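Case study B.
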Amino acid sequence: MTRLIFLGPPGAGKGTQAIKLAQACGLAHISTGDMLRASVAQNTPLGEKAKGYMDRGELVPDALILDMVRERLSQPDTKSGWILDGFPRNVNQAGFLDQLLAEIKQGCDRVVNLDVPDDVLIARLVLRGQQQGRSDDNEETIRRRLQVYRDQTAPLIDYYTQRQQLVVVDGDQPMQEVTAQLQKVIED
Ligand code: ADP
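Model:
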């Protein structure tokens, strides 16, 4: 049973790789960012609350995220395994996930940190902003997201290293190469 968490800064390629691997391995791809963007697009109450935070590059408050994840992990397609992409994103969310997984009697095998230098991240995100028109992919918000990543998400690297769950993959390589290395992590 494969259950993975993808950590890594914005622009590291978590989403791209998670989609590919989930498809190849029959896993549910759970992206909190995608779920939030869908809520914003549909003008749901959650979307309306989340939009301002997302546009500023801040984390959406945990209270909004945790129910969403609990609900998602109760859906039947998660039974054959999953990849969590963009969650947890701070220590409080990681603690919540530990509790939730204990409750639903699931474990998480590995936490992958996709490592990419800042200058490469910024270049990728600026390009994505131009190509896809994502409203948080402008330079000011990108810098804020990187800062938020360093302050709030990067501490999870220690959190999972201490539990001996962390695997680091170099995300600054050709896409197929990254996919191949991630596939090895799954097979190990
Ligand atoms: P990226 O990794 O490029 O920042 P995401 O799609 O993962 O893209 O996230 C986009 C935005 O959605 C974040 O900047 C944040 O506002 C919000 N978001 C996504 N996941 C979470 C989460 N687990 N907790 C809080 N906010 C989140």
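Residues 2-187 form a domain with the Rossmann fold fold (CATH 3.40.50.300). The remaining cases will be described in the next quarterly update.
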